[in-house]
Design brief:
With 250 residues, this protein is α/β, with parallel strands linked by helices. The chain folds into two domains: 115 residues, 3-Layer(aba) Sandwich (Rossmann fold), CATH 3.40.50.10090; 125 residues, Rossmann fold, CATH 3.40.50.10090. It is 32% helix and 21% strand. The strands form two sheets. Strands 3-8-7-4-5-6 form a six-stranded mixed beta sheet. Helix 1 links the parallel strand 1 and strand 2. Helix 1 packs parallel to helix 9. The protein starts with a strand and ends in a 7-residue tail after the last helix. The model has no long low-confidence stretch (mean pLDDT 92).
Length: 250
């Protein structure tokens, strides 16, 4: 089985996807359908957002973490130690160690990785003024939920998502496609107009990406996170074990 994971190659032997390759004998190709470009400081200033006016930041992806701190560096903004961070998943929270001294900050995340549980976490700190770093193309589900609960927040476009086009003649012979954002689905349809899924398995991470698959008239075969599969890699392994139970045995 040949699997396309629409993310950059992790370039590490410790990747769970490498373990899956060895355990199940599949071939995993890392090939992003999208690429991300940071909004310049000049562009950001046109939004008239003062980052220091916010006491807390909500991160829904590692990409948002990267571009928030990179933009702050470009703007020469020092984030106060008192800033609270709420993250969609535990892995995003752990990723913040790249930018902050983790033990000295307030980093909060739901156990499930679901947006409704993130909103519950936010609601427990409803006196904060929240900033939400987003892409120019983003889902408004989170902001609608926060508005319903009357939680003060502002979305700030800090990066843009563009299609990472396939070259003419580039092979597209995958048995499975794994997506991590609605923009990835949009890029699939842009690169391959009239795309027919047929027997190709499609997996997604996050409710917004799952919805994009269904809205595109495609079949969703694997979805994460779930109670038993908190990550895309875990969901992929569950699927492979289900269709090839003997191959998962040592």
């Amino acid at each position: 089985m040949k699997i396309l994971v629409s993310q950059p190659d992790p370039k590490t032997e410790k990747s769970p996807y490498r373990d899956i390759e060895d355990k199940y004998g599949v071939e995993i190709i890392f090939r992003p359908f999208i690429k991300v470009e940071q909004v310049s400081a000049k562009e950001f200033r046109t939004q008239k957002i003062n980052i220091l006016n916010y006491s807390a930041v909500i991160f829904t992806s590692k990409t948002a973490v990267d571009h928030f701190f990179q933009l702050c560096k470009e703007l020469r903004i020092n984030i106060p130690d008192s800033t609270r961070y709420l993250c969609m998943t535990e892995s995003i929270g752990a990723y913040m160690r790249k930018y902050i001294v983790y033990r000295k900050r307030k980093v909060i995340f739901p156990k499930t990785g679901k947006i409704e549980d993130l909103v519950i976490c936010v609601g427990k700190h409803n006196k904060e003024n929240y900033l939400i770093p987003v892409s120019d193309i983003h889902n408004d589900d989170l902001t609608k939920r926060l508005e319903k609960k009357k939680i003060k927040h502002t979305t700030a476009v800090m990066y843009r998502t563009v299609s990472n086009d396939f070259a003419e003649g580039e092979a597209f012979d995958y048995d499975m496609l794994i997506f991590f954002s609605p923009a990835g689905i949009a890029s699939l349809l842009k690169n391959f107009p009239g795309y027919e899924q047929k027997d190709t398995v499609i997996g997604t991470l996050g409710s917004a990406t799952a919805k994009a698959v269904i809205d595109a008239g495609l079949r969703l075969d694997i979805e994460a996170p779930t109670e038993t599969a908190p990550s895309m890699a875990a969901a992929l392994e569950q699927y492979l074990k289900k269709i090839n139970p003997d191959e998962s045995e040592p």
